[in-house]
Design goal:
Helix 4 packs across helix 5, helix 14 packs parallel to helix 16 and helix 18 packs parallel to helix 20. The chain is α+β, with helices and mostly antiparallel strands. Strand 7, helix 26 and strand 8 form a beta-alpha-beta unit. The N and C termini lie far apart (84 Å). The strands form two sheets. Strands 4, 5, 6, 7 and 8 form a five-stranded mixed beta sheet that branches. Strands 1-3-2 form a three-stranded antiparallel beta sheet, with helices on one face.
Amino acid sequence: MARSIFSRLRLCRSVCCAAFPSTRVSVGLLNARPSSTVILGQSTVILQDGLRIQELPWVIRRLDPREFPFNRVTYSADDIRNHAEQDEAFEQLLQDCKNVRQVFRLLEVPGEQVTVFSAVFALRRIYQLKTGGTSDDIDSFIRAAILNELCETVVREIGHLSNRALIDTARCSVTFRSHDDCFVEKVKEEIERRVGDGVFAIGDICLLISIFSEHIRGDPNTTRNLWIHLGSRYKEFGEDNIASIYRMMRNITPEFRYLWRILDRQLQACWWKLNASDVSAVARQLVLANYQSSQTLSAFGKWLFTNIHEVKDAELKDVVALYTHFNFSDANVVSSLERYATAKIGTLDKTIAAMLMDYCCQKRFLSTIIFDAVAQDFQKSSAAYRPIEVTFALRAFGILNYVPPNTSEFFAVAENSIHDICADLDPVLLLELLSSFVYLERFPVNFVRSVFTPHFFTKINAISDAARRQKAVMKLLQLQSSMFLEFPCSNVAFLANKETFKISLTWLEGRSYKFHHEVKSLLRDLVGAAFIREMVVAENSPHLINFEISVDRNRNLVQVYEEDKEKQIKLALVGMMPEFYCINTHHLLGEFATKKRHLEKLGYVFLEMEYEKFMWQCRGTVAKTKYLKSILSPHINFNSKLN
């Protein structure tokens, strides 16, 4: 069938060529010719109809050079010239001009003595000075006349300009409204002519797309044609130009988003050849465009592992920001960052130190090498850290529940730093920082007195973002609970409670809610609804207990509302989600280790119900019931009769 179709289309081509020998004929054929030789344009569709007609529709387009100007018959790249020595001398004189007035004074020469390159250099210098902030007027009558004469000089010999000079001309033409429309159109025509002949390099096309996309007189049609041409030359994307293409992708429109996939595929063929600045540029644009590619993230991890010694601080910031933004784990990245942090102790860039700690927190990955390196660097140069950097660097220790070596010295330096920045910190960040210390059982007594005040509570209630306000209140209540239960001699007036801030402490998100209700249905069958209290907030704390069960000293169940609570033992069944643990060491994060510690101080027996074991390892009701019974059996006598 396919052979028959192609034979008929070839016959169509031969018939048309015989009928019109003096014209060029293009027939729409699905063949293996390169896309650059296929002529696209308006078409004539000839349909054959009938009951027994087997032919496909024929699409025929007759063209001649006047109808299709972008072919090599009308343009020759040999016309492009290089600028002469006198043009270089004139360009140097222009660069010495400090304002537009000096440029126009330099141009007070007869028009025929100004070459096309000199005119381009003059326009470019005027553009540079105007965009640089000079306030000289170029719309006066005399200056407008000189400007028009420069534009006419460029138009007369625009075909002789080099690609770089033409790009500079295009930038000037679309930036200011003072240029004549005819000049702008001539520049666009010359650009489209060269684009059609493939004269521009990939980097030049990227520059032109940026120019026409980002300036006030940019032409959408020209920009669209440039995007199409760029996509048709995807095989030319390589290590020499792929960073330039990524930089330009900030201007992409929805119509051409498919280029992201093409770029990603081409990047896989050359990522190991890129230098540090190119990797940094690609990483920055991926973050700005929010385009995630697991292949690229994995490839850059390998690149970083090999080239970490060549990466500058500014470039490393972009790379770390890439992995933080997409929350992507990679062993090569962690290993590279560990080597970097260890080698830079004492001279470590403080922003990078904060970014490394934030990345570890986000991934719940405890790298003792990075944490120890940042701790040593902080002890040596804490004064160089800005307030936000101090917060991100220090809070990570409490969040991941890790105490560094030289504990006394480290916390002494940390206390002095917090004292210096306390007044400048946002209330939410301050509470995060202080609560992270109580996770490590280090109590910031010198700072809590400034937190537990009506004035500070007013600041928290004034937070407009509900999620941030909820987070701030939780940290405040955790801090208060720690001071009350673990450091009662602090003599702080505790004023905070959930009613003060009108928040809920019993809210569960999707997975936790489903987990809770599955356990609830099984527990009712296992021990009986009369012996269970659910969604309990422990006294003097913000800690939520999924299920509270009371037993006597003989491990017999006791109903919820029975008297003589002093002789009862309270069991706290708490649902433990995967995100409550460090991903590599599987120890509890600081916040949840503190919750366990507080509930035990309040007299509870803390029982962990792990989400992964219950939901994934236990298949079926019998297995899940058996898992719950294994947790409760050491504390409940299931063989005795329920009281």
